[in-house]
Amino acid sequence: MAAVADIKMDDTKSEANGNDVRTPNLNVAQELPELRAGEAEGIADFYDGAVLLVTGGTGFLGKALLEKLLRSCPGITTIYLLLRPKRGLTVEQRYKELLKNQAFDRIRTRWPERLSKLSPITGDVSAPGLGVGLEQKTLLAEVTVLFHSAATVRFTEPLHAATALNVQGTASLLTLAQDMPKLKALVHVSTAYSNAPQPTIDERVYPPPYDPDSIVRCAKMLPQHTVNVLAQTLQGEHPNTYTLTKALAESIVYSHQELPVCIVRPSIVTAALQEPFPGWIDNIYGVTGIVMEISRGTYRSGFCRERYVVDLVPVDLVVNACILAAWRQGTNKVGRCPVYNVTSGSVSPLQWGAFTRLCVKWARENPTKYVMWYPNFSFTESRFLNTFWEVTCHLLPAFLYDVLLRAQGRKAIMMKLARRFQLAAATGEYFANHEWQFGIEQLTALHRDASAAADGDNFPHWPEIDWDQYIATYMMGIRKFILKDSADSLAHARTKLNRLYWVYKILQAATGYYFFRALAGRLR
Q1: Domain enclosing residue 322, as ranges
Q2: Among the four residues 134, 157, 235, 475, which has the most C-beta atoms within 10 Å?
Q3: How does pLDDT run across 40-67, given as a tens digit for each residue?
């Protein structure tokens, strides 16, 4: 389930302040070393005097990218943000909301003047010409580095909408980039799963399953209903419209030989390892939602091959890879459209089974006050057993909880949330039951080049991860940034968890007792 009926989303602080938070190195964000005076040829030097354009700046990855650029590349002149009005908010209102985000807390405290380098520009990735006016195009002619991370990441997005954002939007951006005479690097953020039907994915652009222009024309000319009917056929072996449209977008990027383009392909992007703060996360999409519900005891079984590798990569490692990819493209002239598979499985593999065991471990060590049942979890490769556990461990408890809520005169929402989470789990099943081998030759070269730079240590991106420590950080980040659960509540949460443990054991014993009685009766 994606939420709980009685969670109060308060703004209490969650620093440890002496509380017994059982997790290594979580209390203070480590400060990375500043570049020493006199050192030259640094990565940050490439960005001195730079004018940047960032799409997708209000997204999870976008916020982390903006924060890192402002903090570690102080010589940047301007960062233009392409924003559109959304959900009743104007561009200016959305910009002000962005600046309030916790990701920028350290900059607000130490270098507040750097936030003035951000400059919103009205536009829409899905609109013709990005919806950018002539006045804005004049400003954008000064851009030297472009980061394109705007996309729809919803697996269930209708094909016409995914095409407009991920394919047509990328094509329009590249057309705009052709009018940027000072452009040194353009980083297109894709996904490691853009070629999901391939079990081995090298760092190259694969031929697209269809001509991207033809798909765009179909999405524009045909009624939405017709496009949706054709979507399943067009997807072919792709699991969803997201991976399909990302593959099409990559081919468009690759076709622009005249531009200094490169592609960064992260796998499953998760909470920050270290920056802007350990465990920082601001959404509950995908794996994060699963981790949160495991911590609350509401998600207890999943359909998955637990020996397969779950390829997680912390958001700050992805951000640093993007910054370094632009630097390498602009300084080393590394050739036509290098591709970087920013993945962890080839360097530091983690299996699904080990991942969920660590989640359960840290859910019990540092419980949240919103825990609803004693955390426990197991995978099954049997569709029948998975359905059985879904009904008994997810849907039935949600139904009973709704009965209790109605009896108290409160709104019943748990069944709705349970079904929503069931749908989310179903859309992710493809990735839990397939495994990929990712080539990392270009990522290795990027690591080598960055290590030789004067300030290379300021941009760590190589995915060698202590998974036990990271999962602890990840779950404390969910506790702090998503659930707004202060570390002051740990003592109370552990007392609550202890009660749930004994209730869990009593129910286990009672279930076993009645099972054996029934079995004994049949054997007589």
Answers
A1: 43-271+311-355+433-440
A2: 475
A3: 368 999 999 999 999 999 999 999 999 9
Q: Residue 214: CB partners within 8 Å, gap ≥ 6?
A: none
Evaluate whether residue 457 is within a structural domain: no
Looking at the DSSP assignment, which residues form a beta bridge with residue 309?
351
**361 in the same domain as 220:** no
Beta bridge partners of 122: 83
| pLDDT tens profile 412-464 | 777 777 777 777 777 788 898 999 999 999 999 999 999 999 898 999 988 88
For residues 165 and 218, membership in a common domain is answered with yes
User: How far, CA to CA in Å, does 474 sit from each of 348, 371, 376, 461, 466?
Assistant: 17, 17, 18, 17, 12
- Regarding whether 204 and 86 lie in a shared domain, the answer is yes
Nearest to 397 by CA among 430, 364, 373: 373
Is 144 inside any structural domain? yes
Give pTM, 2 decimals. 0.87
Q: Which of 433, 434, 193 is nearest to 313 (CA)?
A: 193
Give every CB contact of residue 487 below 8 A, 6+ residues apart in sequence. Answer: 14, 15, 16, 17, 19, 21, 480
